[in-house]
Amino acid sequence: MVTGGRVPVSPAPGVAARRQHLRVDGPRLLARIERLRAVGATPAGGVSRLAFTPDDTRGRELVASYLRAAGMGVEVDPAGNLIGRRLGARPDRPWLVLGSHLDTVPDGGPLDGAYGVLAAVEVAHVLAEHGVEMGFPVAVIGFMNEEGAFGTPGMWGSHAFAGQFDRTWLSGVDSRGEPVRDLLRAAGGDPGRVPRAAWPDGSVGAYLELHIEQGPVLETEGYPIGVVTAITGRVTIDVTVRGQANHAGTTPIALRRDALVAAAQFVLAVRDIAGEDGIVRVATVGCCTVEPDAWNVVPGLVRLRADLRDVAEESLDAAVEALRRVAEKIGAETGTVVELAPSQVVQPMACDGRLRRLISAASDALGLPYHHLPSGAGHDAQIVGRLAPMAMIFVPSQGGRSHVATESTAPEDIVAGANVLLHTVLGYDPEVMRGHQ
Ligand SMILES: [Zn+2]
Q: Which among 260, 227, 229 has a CA at the least distance from the CA of 243?
């Protein structure tokens, strides 16, 4: 519980001046990113460190050694999260938690997730090296299975951390037929005690996650730092278009009930609800199956899936409603039935205004221009945000590329982002978080 007031949290003026000049050890951070990249390196130049694989475990062991080098106590919680703790002088206060994930997609890049964890370790290391005493405990977390390896639920570790873990996730097998419980046990977790990975309400004062942008905005606009406004939410809609299969030569156009013609109109409608003049930020139809899928038969059935993303839940709801109306109209005009089944709703999550101001102030103090932007990708922060105020810092992705072997960020941007994280931590005061956002 917060019992502040007796011990001043703000450092004395001389200490504050010394702290202003603190910087992360850039070469050490860059060298560690390269060493971790070598764990699970693929012939194509990428990294495959899927959760629950021996490479993931080896990567986590490497990072555990870095946490110990930073003077932290290290543990793996029952959900498989790797946690380093630095209690400091006020272990009674809510924790400041820094983190991201260490797993990758197949043939992914070296920075997605790993950068945020290694930079957080670097921040803790610098604080320890310089004997900086914070007025609150600090944890660094490498969250388990953010990417959803082998068909398992993604953001697994952050769900457990936030007390949002669904126990049915443990009961099945993965896409290879391996029992999920066994995988977790092999990764150092404890399937029977996963609920204990949840941190109690009030125990986390704030959560900060540093991450590559994974998109082109910062590079295009020329900013080294992004202050994330909110993490996008997502709705996927399974669409079934039922028409009538028939002979492509003998069926007159006016009498056809062509499911693919109707589906094509629906795809255009999905595009039209997105963008600057639309209802949601982005919308995509990325998959489609046609039956009977023969060149000389009028298509009778089409299935597709639409993916809508926005930082406002109301916008997502409004877009789904708009598409329902469009579907009815298309059905009436084409003699088909267009059925919509929304699924996989992920709520958007706003970043905390007080933490965003701290990040902006840290960037200003370091002379780094910053840009406010939403996150188009999902992150552990989105789930942790259900437990505690959270914010994210982005650095540019070269060419906007991510989840591929060529994922990269300029070394100076990697170091700049870590310094912004360091100075956000140095500027953090649990008392600030007691006020209104
Ligand atoms: Zn990530």
A: 260
Structural domains in the chain?
13-231+348-434 (3.40.630.10), 233-346 (3.30.70.360)
Cβ 51 vs Cβ 186: under 8 Å: no
* Per-residue model confidence as pLDDT tens digits over 372-424: 999 999 999 999 999 999 999 999 999 999 999 999 999 999 999 999 999 99
How many C-beta neighbours within 10 Å does residue 262 have?
Answer: 24
Ligand 1 is a single-atom ion; what residues have CB below 5 A from it? Answer: 112-113
211 C-alpha to ligand 1 centroid (Å): 7
**Rounded distance between C-alpha atoms, residue 100 and residue 228, angstroms:** 15
Q: Tens of pLDDT along 250-298?
A: 999 999 999 999 999 999 999 999 998 999 999 999 989 999 999 999 9
User: How close is the Cα of 348 to the center of ligand 1, in Å?
Assistant: 16
Rounded to the nearest 10 degrees, what angle do helices 114-129 and 26-37 cross at?
140
Expressed in angstroms and rounded, the spacing between residue 215 Cα and the centre of ligand 1 is 12
Q: Specify the pTM.
A: 0.86
CA 10 to centroid of ligand 1, rounded, Å? 33
Name the CA dihedral angle for 375, 381, 384, 385, rounded to a multiple of 10 degrees: -40
Measured distance CA(126)–CA(120) in Å, rounded? 10
Compute, in angstroms, the gap from residue 414 CA to the centroid of ligand 1. Answer: 15
The Å distance, Cα 114 to ligand 1 centre, comes to 8
